[in-house]
């Protein structure tokens, strides 16, 4: 199985934040979700992949090469940003005329089809689009040049639930082409429960894990039980715990160990990605 992205020991420091030895890969032909709380470093990592931010150390390989050495590779990437890079006073038609020549594989028919699907008019000006509509326009551009890699920073942010679901279906259709790969960041982990094959979880500038979603959901387990169980020396089994007046719920990173301790005396359940993110980020600090 080949990798479209390989990140090896990437570091970058700002005054108040640093990415520390980030390491992961993105498999060709799959949907990879990049999750993490606000400020985890997801956008910075995506910008590093796009060669818009230069790391201070480590290696970034896209399609086996470096975008710095071969900027032409960008044509093969459909990038969707959570920032607006378009000219506010231009109409979508003029914006399209400006963007199209940058791409050898630009497909006007596909672009028109996406605008219709997203209910956008070419006559509208960028400045009159809502946040969700701008995101749709950005998606239409990214999808209209037959990119092999879609790299999207929070593409579902600002979208209503109906369109969010439509977008996820659309990404599901795109990925049927096994030569395409999709990476998107989100903190709406429900989006990924449905369609992601791989999950990269970042927290405070580090990768917590990068694995197939199924493996992650099998490895972790939620434990729910009465408070009396906490009198036993069991807290070290958990990465995070939430205690109520009578009971607790906690996330354990090793299902087998949790089963050994809690089988028969507590409830063991498969976590959601949201559970994993919440308990890992909050650790033992959360109380009800
Ligand atoms: N150019 C920069 N100069 C200084 N600090 C920066 C710069 N870019 C990002 N940061 C800091 O790096 C941290 C990570 O930001 P980043 O946008 O990568 O996080 P994120 O995981 O995408 O968060 P969110 O989900 O809120 O978008 C933040 O604390 C941010 O303030």
From TrEMBL:
Q: Which InterPro entries match?
A: AAA+_ATPase, ABC_transporter-like_ATP-bd, ABC_Transporter_VariousFunc, P-loop_NTPase
One MF term from GO for this chain? ATP hydrolysis activity
TM region positions: none
- Provide the ABC transporter domain boundaries: 2-229
Keyword hit for Secreted: no
**Cross-referenced Gene3D superfamilies:** P-loop containing nucleotide triphosphate hydrolases (3.40.50.300)
Could you tell me which CDD domains the record lists for this protein?
ABC_DR_subfamily_A
Checking Pfam families in the record gives: ABC_tran
Keyword Nucleotide-binding among record annotations: yes
Official protein name in the record: ABC transporter ATP-binding protein
């Amino acid at each position: 199985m080949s990798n479209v992205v390989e990140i090896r020991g990437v570091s970058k420091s700002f005054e108040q934040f640093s990415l520390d030895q980030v390491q992961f890969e993105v498999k060709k032909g799959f949907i990879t979700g990049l999750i993490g709380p606000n400020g985890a470093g997801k956008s910075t990592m995506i910008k590093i992949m796009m060669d818009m931010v230069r790391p201070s150390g480590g290696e970034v390989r896209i399609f086996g090469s470096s975008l710095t050495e071969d900027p032409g590779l960008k044509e093969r990437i459909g990038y969707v940003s959570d920032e607006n890079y378009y000219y506010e006073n231009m109409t979508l038609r003029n914006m399209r005329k400006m963007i199209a020549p940058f791409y050898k594989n630009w497909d006007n028919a596909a672009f028109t089809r996406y605008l219709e699907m997203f209910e956008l008019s070419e006559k509208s000006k960028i400045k009159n689009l809502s946040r969700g509509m701008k995101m749709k326009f950005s998606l239409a551009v990214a999808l209209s040049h037959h990119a092999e890699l879609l790299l999207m920073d929070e593409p579902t942010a600002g979208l209503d639930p109906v369109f969010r679901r439509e977008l996820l279906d659309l990404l599901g259709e795109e990925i049927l082409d096994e030569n395409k790969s999709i990476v998107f960041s989100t903190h709406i982990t429900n989006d990924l429960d449905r369609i992601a094959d791989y999950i990269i979880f970042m927290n405070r500038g580090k990768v917590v894990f990068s694995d197939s979603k199924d493996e992650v959901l099998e490895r972790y387990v939620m434990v729910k039980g009465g408070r009396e169980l906490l009198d036993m020396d069991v807290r070290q089994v958990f990465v995070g715990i939430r205690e109520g007046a009578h009971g607790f719920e906690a996330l354990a990173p090793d299902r087998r160990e949790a089963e050994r301790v809690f089988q028969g005396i507590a409830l063991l359940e498969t976590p959601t990605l949201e559970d994993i993110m919440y308990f890992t980020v909050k650790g033992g600090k959360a109380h009800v």
